[in-house]
Design brief:
Zincin-like, elongated
């Protein structure tokens, strides 16, 4: 397998998707600025003295006026504020999800070390983590065992120094040493390629778009309980809130599509890295075949699994929101069939 070629391809595709995220944030901010300025212009035109004009005429005039030299700066100011609000929410989401140990605790996972490893399989898993970290030239991550029978694993943390690897009891019990080495090497590949930090950033980015829902709700309630505002002006404010909520829904929806696309590319990259560290492609292929041919489930019952689906080694989703490529396609890439 030409894993370096696959690494380069996955990195290139990830850069494109990351650019699309920035573009989506910028477009949504500009749309929010436009909504505000057009809404304020409409509210002004609904005061007394403009009754002879239809809604279409008022909307057209408000939209044209928004791009006049007098108001373009106000439009850009509103857009900048929307950008800052979404960026601030993104930053909050990043710091909230940056501690890998807390993520593991959210799954009720148990930290494994020399003293807490109760079985030969657990001690073997600890040895594999040490071996693969050494092969990848990174600090040995902490290993957590998740009390789930579904076969899955993930890596988390904001840097190589405080990274963790978590595997389910189902994975520990279903894979032999060679297969488990491939799975753990895959997760360490995520650490080496800084996917653990990227996963947090992407998740926080989508979380940042939800700020638009709070903004829409603020405008709605402010208009509803403002007794000094004219009834027609209130309708305009309600319409503004609805438009902002729609923009929020669309950006979150598109953001999740990009999140899934980014995740699929990083999975290919981690697969290639696992081959690089183990020097044995069949180990990871055999692990995939256990799932594909053995009827094993990757489903996890913990509610946190949905939020961190993009970080899992094996995911569940539809065509648009599938966070992982099909197993057969991953096997084909490893075996250099495509």
């Amino acid at each position: 397998m030409d894993f370096r070629e696959h690494q380069d391809r996955a990195k290139r595709n990830s850069r494109i998707i990351w650019f699309l995220y920035i573009l989506l944030l910028s477009i949504s901010s500009l749309l929010i600025g436009w909504t505000f300025i057009v809404g304020l212009n409409l509210a002004e035109l609904y005061q007394s003295g403009y009754e002879q004009y239809s809604f279409g005429q008022k909307f057209s005039a408000s939209n044209s006026h928004a791009f006049d030299s007098e108001q373009i700066q106000i439009l850009l100011s509103f857009s900048a504020i929307a950008f800052i609000v979404q960026a601030s929410t993104t930053a909050f989401g990043f710091f909230k999800k940056s501690d890998g140990h807390k993520v593991a605790v959210a799954f009720n996972a148990r930290l494994l070390d020399e003293n807490s490893a109760n079985s030969l399989a657990e001690k073997q898993a600890l040895n594999i983590v040490t071996e693969q970290a050494l092969a990848a030239s990174v600090p040995t991550p902490s290993l957590y065992l998740i009390p789930e029978q579904g076969i899955n694993a993930f890596a988390a943390g904001k840097s190589n120094k405080n990274a963790i690897v978590a595997i389910t009891e189902g994975a520990l019990n279903s894979f032999n040493r060679t297969e488990l080495s491939g799975v753990i090497a895959h997760e360490i590949g995520h650490i080496v390629n800084q996917d653990i930090k990227l996963n947090i950033q992407i998740s926080a980015f989508v979380f940042g778009f939800t700020a638009l829902f709070f903004l829409a709700r603020f405008i709605f309630y402010n208009a509803m309980y403002n007794r000094r505002m004219d009834g027609r002006a209130k309708l305009v404010m309600f319409a503004m809130a609805a438009v902002i909520a729609i923009i929020g829904a669309l950006t979150v929806w598109m953001g999740r599509i990009l999140q899934a696309a980014m995740s699929r590319q990083r999975e290919y990259l981690a697969d290639a890295s696992a081959v690089q560290f183990t020097r044995y492609p069949d180990g990871l292929v055999q692990a995939f075949e256990v799932l594909e041919n053995g009827g094993k489930s990757t489903k996890m019952e913990n509610p946190s699994s949905k939020e961190y689906a993009h970080a899992m080694m094996f995911g569940i989703g539809g065509e648009l929101f599938a966070t992982h490529p099909p197993l057969r396609e991953r096997i084909a890439r490893i075996q250099n069939q495509k």
